[in-house]
Amino acid sequence: MTNHSHGKPGYTGIKRVVKATRYSFQGLKAAFQHEAAFRQEIVLLLIATVVSCLINVSTLEHIALIGVVVLVVIVELLNSAIEAIVDRIGSEHHELSGRAKDIGSAAVFVALVFAAFTWFYILVS
């Protein structure tokens, strides 16, 4: 079925949800296959989840401890997408390409610092 109400063709309803879910899993698979940082952050997420379950903190603190690591994974996925787009455009050095990659990397760094701060604050207080 075609959806003309938004000016772009595509599926609607449950078929759209199924296809979107399939594309999302393809993206996760591609990230896992091609991005070492993503694989490392998945391991970090698994470790953080286990450690969070072993420490005596409130439910909200458990959610925060795991959530900040999930945030790192999300930001890494976005950074990897930016890098893939930039690499697709061309391998020659361009100031804007470098800036895009650096800003994506900075976003991952900020997410990691936030995660470390959150873990430190909850564990120390």
Automatic annotation (TrEMBL):
This is Diacylglycerol kinase. It is found in: Cell inner membrane. Its cofactor is Mg(2+). Catalyzes the ATP-dependent phosphorylation of sn-l,2-diacylglycerol (DAG) to phosphatidic acid. Involved in the recycling of diacylglycerol produced as a by-product during membrane-derived oligosaccharide (MDO) biosynthesis. Its EC number is 2.7.1.107. The active site is at residue 76. The keyword Kinase applies. Keywords: ATP-binding, Cell inner membrane, Cell membrane, Kinase, Lipid biosynthesis, Lipid metabolism, Magnesium, Membrane, Metal-binding, Nucleotide-binding, Phospholipid biosynthesis, Phospholipid metabolism, Transferase, Transmembrane, Transmembrane helix.
